[in-house]
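Hello forum,

I keep getting stuck at the same step: I have a sequence, I want structure tokens, and every attempt I make locally crashes halfway through. Rather than fight my setup again tonight, could one of you with a working pipeline run this one for me? It's a single chain of 174 residues.
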Amino acid sequence: MTEAVYLAVARFRKPHGLKGEALIYPLTDEPDAVFVPGRVLVPVDEEGRPTGVEVVIQKARSYQRHWLVSFEGITERGVLESWGSVMLGAVQSELSPPEEGEMYLHEIPGSIVVEAGVEIGMVKEIVGVPGGSVLVIERDGREHMIPFRDPIVKRLDRENRRIEVVLPPGLLEV
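Reply #2:
Ran it on my machine without issues. Output:
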């Protein structure tokens, strides 16, 4: 498995205010350690490949479930309005490696989803939605959405690229 040079650490939500501040949603368990002044972020695709120009965090603070971030050289809202819902990545070597039972975001697509030892599908993508993230899995030629959270997701096996789940009754029949 090839490791990405950059790892997605946030999803840009929208400009905040008029002076170039951005509202971002953290995709890391360590936002206090990642969103620090001087950290270089770059727009990335799902595989962690750069898709735009680097930005450097000037200031950052927690704001409800999001973070408000100012970037060096960006002082106007208009610069951020064209970003869409871009993911922002940081250099992998500057981040803590995943612990037991964790996976990098780019490792989730292609992982096998298993319930009670039975393969139920393969993850096509992970999608951010209001209230969290969902796994989009393919099963029998159809796509299904599974909430990516406790108590549904029980275990992530990074080495074997497996995600063990316990699904609510009827979820795959919807």
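The radius of gyration is 17 Å. If your local run keeps crashing, start a new thread with the error log.
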